[in-house]
């Protein structure tokens, strides 16, 4: 079964850190651009960070620049999102998704675009 399996997430205090993982199952990530998206209650889905399949180029939405880092380890078939200096406004359900036909820039700038494979989502809550 082709799927992305997410792990990480949970409850963290403001200023804390979390790392989300997105592991491919049943296929190889090598040729997939991967994006992290989030959706808070009552808000639109947002492209948080995306990474290319080829040279590791990355995109970050302005609100997370300097705090979040996306990376990929193709040997482990996994993409990560390291989140530091978390703020209450980062609270949301986070999803990873992949595509072989969409560039990483397009993935993040058009978060409702069709993508071939999605993770199950994980809740991140930033609260004291």
Notes on the protein architecture:
With 128 residues, the protein is mainly beta. The chain has one helix at 104-109; strands spanning 3-7, 10-12, 18-25, 33-39, 46-51, 58-60, 68-73, 78-83, 92-99, 117-118, 122-126. Strand 5 (46-51) and strand 6 form a beta hairpin. The longest helix is centred in the last third of the chain and has 6 residues, at 104-109.
Number of strands: 11
Count of helical segments? 1
Radius of gyration: 13 Å
Helix fraction bin: under 10%
Q: In what range is the share of β-strand residues?
A: over 45%
- N-C termini distance: 39 Å
Q: In terms of per-residue confidence, which ranges show pLDDT below 50 for 5 or more consecutive residues? A: none
Structural features:
11 strands; 128 residues; 5% helix; mainly beta; single chain; 4-stranded antiparallel beta sheet; 7-stranded mixed beta sheet; 1 helix
State the gist of this model.
The chain has 128 residues and is mostly beta strands. The chain is 5% helix and 46% strand.
Blueprint (SSEs and pairs):
Layout: E1 3-7, E2 10-12, E3 18-25, E4 33-39, E5 46-51, E6 58-60, E7 68-73, E8 78-83, E9 92-99, H1 104-109, E10 117-118, E11 122-126
């Amino acid at each position: 079964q082709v799927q992305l399996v997410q792990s990480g997430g949970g409850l963290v205090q403001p200023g804390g850190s979390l790392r989300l993982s997105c592991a491919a199952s049943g296929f190889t990530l090598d040729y997939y651009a991967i994006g992290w998206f989030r959706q808070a209650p009552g808000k639109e889905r947002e492209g948080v960070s995306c990474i290319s399949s080829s040279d590791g180029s990355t995109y970050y939405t302005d609100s997370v620049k300097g705090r979040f880092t996306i990376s990929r380890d193709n040997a482990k078939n996994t993409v990560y999102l390291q989140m530091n200096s978390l703020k209450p406004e980062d609270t949301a359900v986070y999803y990873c998704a992949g595509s072989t036909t969409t560039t990483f820039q397009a993935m993040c700038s058009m978060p409702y675009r069709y993508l071939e494979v999605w993770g199950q989502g994980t809740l991140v809550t930033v609260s004291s």
